[in-house]
Amino acid sequence: MSPLLSPESPELDDAHFVLLASYAKHLGRAPKAIRFATHSGERRSRQKGHGMEMLELRAYQASDDLRHIDWRVTARTGQAHTRLYAQENDHQRLLLLDLSSSAYFGTRHTFIATRFLQLAGIIAWRSKQQGDTLSYRITYGNQEHASNKSGTLPTLLNYLKDASKIENRANGHKTTSIWANTLLTNKAHNKDVIILTDKQSWNQDEESALMKLAEHNSVHWIQIIDSNVFNLPAGQYQMADNNGIKPVTISKNSMQQAKADFLSQNTLMRKKLASFGIRHQIFDITESPEKIARYLLSQGALH
Q: For 170-231, what is the HEC assignment?
């Protein structure tokens, strides 16, 4: 069995994160052109021009360079629009990783939390290898870490290693969403934002913050589930939570109800994310982090 798909322990060590560097390096090449639309009047694409990379198309402002006016859009809309450019290698990425206590569970291969952390490690290594700027905010257990500085890869990998510890399952977790109440997201603009979380709900204020984030950035939401959890045989299980280990009896009816509740909540979440212009994709724990990273590469979230 592949050490990437099924690591010896859900608690990842330094050697495993070193291994992830090789997988990140051999992901392949990103598509030459990635286009997506957010809201009318604002567009961001991977088009090149003037030796630069186009980041945004917006209404003309008095300080804009006249050479960058998009005459086709101006003629179509009746309003002057300007193309904004950035250096071709200036890829700005924001990683938001949020693990609840429920993520420290899995019936096959490893924990959901471990799979998220492997993916985060590949994203971190790939960003370093491609010379991209990576900011991050991660929350797990009772811990929270964030940085928008360059050269912090060793620190981030240490945080990811610490996040893989099973003890975080019993340490509780923050109930607020990872994108809310933080300068990293409030000031994010023209970035590839990757959200990794097992959570499926948020309050109204958090929804407003998420809509704002999606309005000014390309947001990719990755969800990892263990589909086998709804196929567990009826019986009594030992479950750990914030109050310790306790027996839990699972019946066929309760399992069916849990599955129905999950699917209902997930459908609602998917519809909301789609309405915000957020790309949402579900992967099963049986799929490797390398495969998920290649999906992000195909979507332009990685380069």
A: HCCCCCCCCCCCCHHHHCCCCCEEEEEECCCCCCHHHHHHHHHHHHHCEEEEEEEECHHHHH
